[in-house]
Amino acid sequence: MKKSLTFQYTFHQMAYWATAAGIVSFATAFLLQKGFAASTVGALLATGNLLSCCFQPLLAGWADRMGGNVLKWLTAGLTALSAACFVSIQLLPLPEMAFGLVYLLGVFAFDTMNPLMNALNVSYMTNGYTINYGLSRGLGSLAYAFAALGIGKVMARFGADWMIWISLGLLAINAAMSLSYPSLVTTVSGEKKADECCSVPVFFRRYKWYCVSLLGVMLLGMFHAMTENYLIEIVTPLGGDSGSVGVALFIATAIEAVVLVYFDKLRSKVSDNALLKYAGLSFLLKAVLFLFAKSVTTIYFIQLLQATSYTFLSPTQMYYANNKIHPADMVKGQAFITAAYTLGCAGGNFLGGQLLSYFDLRTMLVAGVVIAAAGTALMARNAVMYTEDGLAVL
Length: 394
Prior knowledge:
The protein is mostly helical. The chain is built from 18 helices and two strands.
């Protein structure tokens, strides 16, 4: 009788997303406080996203071939690399460009863990363990909410460096949780698994319709990153500060957590296709409302749409990848759909920084409406998803 890993996986999700609240969501505010220009911040964050995009599928291909317990060691190793980068920028007298590049490497290592977290869930459930993913992911979002609220207030009162020290403590918990999972007994030989597992180029040919559907995910990720990572720029003209950003992120992730706790029940009544379409429409509505927002209070109300935008998109991505991809290519499937979202984040970070530096905030928000509309159109277009065997309605 295999035991439940819900407690361990939930605690891991909570540590992971609490860390993300600092080093990812407050990256723009942190680097701006360190004297970086908005365009430089956008370029750095976009480069980190692009590196994650390129590296995740390669790492996933290797993990697919190796199988067994490699996933937990990979997540622990990436956590250690990320922590080493953030320790370096705190303790070493680095010039500005080196400071930015080391921060970039730390974010890159942390981002690369994202598909591996999903793959851990699928791997252990495939091996007979039970995990309540909706509960785990929901409490992870709740941890993000409280971390964002706390870190925003700490940064506003004590300065940017405190965000790094808090995040380092959370990274230590991440590493411990990565290594706490039980060892798996491999039932398929490495040679047989390697034969079943396809290369990255073959993956694109084998799952061509799956790959086409990733474009919508990429565009929605682009809009989401543009507005979330530059939220400090959105609230400042309205009279807000980093504390306001923390409150806005808390509202979004608190409502996200409530929905995610009940997501498995929701998914039993609503198809993955419908959830993806609702996510797109919610992102589009957010984009329009951001454009016309007149106060920080309005921003707080807009954040309630997290309940049906990112909250629907994030877990549905994992289930969609798991349903469409052969088990031998499971880690790559998770990596590619995460990479599509990450690629969108890279584009959003870069474009947002350039538009703010060379144009103005309104131009960035108009661009957000256009991008969200395109992503929503693709989600609506894919009302019927394709598999290599033909049409399949989810």
